[in-house]
Amino acid sequence: MILADLSALWLTVQLALVTTVLLFLLGTPLAWWLSQTRSALKPFVETTVALPLVLPPTVLGFYLLILFNPNAPIGGFWVQLTGDTLTFSFTGLVVASIVYSLPFMVQPLQTAFEASARQSMELAAMLRASPIDAFFTVAVPASVRGFINAGVLTFAHTLGEFGIVLMVGGNIPGETRVVSIAIYEHVETLRYDQAHGLSLALLALSFIILLLVYRFNRRTSIHVG
Amino acid sequence: MLVEPLKIDLRLHRAAFDLSIDAELNLDCITAIFGPSGSGKTTLLRLLAGLERPSAGQIKMSGETWVDTAAGLFVRPHRRPVGLVFQSGRLLPQRSVFGNLNFAYARRLDDRPGHSVERVVEAFDLAHLLPQASDTLSGGERQRVALAQAVLTNPKLLLLDEPLVGLDHARKRQILPYLKALNTEFGLPIIYVSHDLEEVSWMADQTLVLEHGAVIGQGAPETVIPDLQTRKEISEKQIGSIVYGVVEARDETFHMMTVRIGNDRVKLPLGGQEQVGDPLRAFVHADDVAIATERPNGLSMQNCLQGSISRIDPERETGFCIIRLECDACILFARITQLSVSSLNLKVGNRGYALFKTGRKVG
């Protein structure tokens, strides 16, 4: 595997890690709100969160490209703030990945919170725990599996991102050239050996990650005290 | 000690259920909320605990207002000095028994006497369970841990949702005195949901009866319960009476005691703790009562009370009927065959003697 391919692999892992961490921060409160609320807004928010599951990545990518355009308000604001554009940059890729992988973070967390939390949260309130206290001492420990599932699915799903990266990020080595793009380019230029190498690496990585999760889910029971 | 009553004036509208309750409950005693399933007992407890928001109304507890929808006031559940034991003993998952108790104790309202972890662990016999994970406990064990947990938060009002369901007689005998002591020694008011008349008779000094989300009776169990007996919502095996009397004598030789009910005297088995002069409630099942037209001789049944028959209600499709007999200071029910009624020629207004075996009694 040549250096450029290794660099693409490393960039992909970085993108997946950053996206997963940021999605934990954004997705947890959103999933918690969805699991607790009786608001009429809930189905609309749930629908919005699920949209990336059904929309072609090119549609998402197209809208993001328009939003990121330096002449558009969001893109322009970003340029003023940092001097960089969101299009064709690593930051832009992170934002796009967050949108793209949002359902893979929110849905497992929401399911975990709904399954474990409602009854336990009521009990915690009766034991005089404030909602925030109860969230950290009761809901989070009861949802460890949900967090692991959500994190791994988000990470693995971001690894395999292609269409949206192509639309928003392009193919800049070391900046936006992730594995899936590199493979695409190898195939386009008929370098099948290198395409094989990278594809196999991505396949193995994804397989190992998912295998670890399923084994963990089957074997471990979780206790906190 | 004068305790301000708990004032409840609540409405709750749900798709298939309407609740409308306006009541004042004395807080210097144990209150039983009694009623058939679906009558709103659990919902009322959840409203008191703050786990449900009423559509309209107020809750006032010793000068504090917990809910006042007109003023937009709603005290959230964790800020109310209330302990609630959920039906079937809900516990925190993924924690040991000790972890569960410690969670509650760490968040207790304040330090008050009689609520140390050691004392509560002993009262509910939990010492050997402390290291166990909460999801490995049996139903009865869960309920004991849940009760202990609620007590450890030092609530000013303890709400219990059928806490004795699934416990055997021996456990009930062990836990009931402790719950009563929480009330009598430490002045902790207890509101206790049950659909079991026997439990109500053991526990409560005051009864609130609900049906279809509304109050249909309130008062001492022995005065409220008899009027419910003819309602079809009470299942037949539940029909019976609560008699209230005072222990007059103890007979250690035969392990019996004499209880005076008005001018009548009955013999009941000694429970061990009753002293002469103690008030006592006992539940007498209608199935355990026979009716005679004259005072009989040479019978093993020790108890014979004279009264007059005030009602005869035939049961549908069984051949039995329920006789209501007004005695000097209590009302007894007897479930006998319609054949007996006919052959003895029993009529409303007739004199009759109620005969019953020693009766069941706990607590």
Task: Describe what this molecule looks like in 3D.
The complex is a heterodimer of chains A (225) and B (363). Chain A is mostly helical. In chain A, 79% of the residues lie in helices and 0% in strands. Chain A contains 10 helices and no strands. In chain A, helix 5 packs across helix 6 and helix 5 runs antiparallel to helix 7. The longest helix of chain A has 37 residues, at 90-126. The N and C termini of chain A lie far apart (47 Å). The model of chain A has no long low-confidence stretch (mean pLDDT 88). With 363 residues, chain B is of the alpha+beta class. In chain B, 21% of the residues lie in helices and 36% in strands. Chain B has helices at 41-49, 97-106, 117-123, 139-152, 169-186, 197-203, 221-224, 338-344; strands at 6-14, 17-25, 30-34, 56-61, 64-68, 73-74, 82-85, 157-161, 190-194, 206-211, 214-219, 240-251, 256-261, 264-269, 279-285, 289-292, 303-314, 320-327, 331-337, 351-356. In chain B, the strands form 4 sheets. Chain B has a 6-stranded mixed β-sheet with strand order 7-8-9-3-10-11, with helices on both faces. In chain B, helix 2 (97-106) runs parallel beside helix 4 (139-152). The mean pLDDT of chain B is 85.
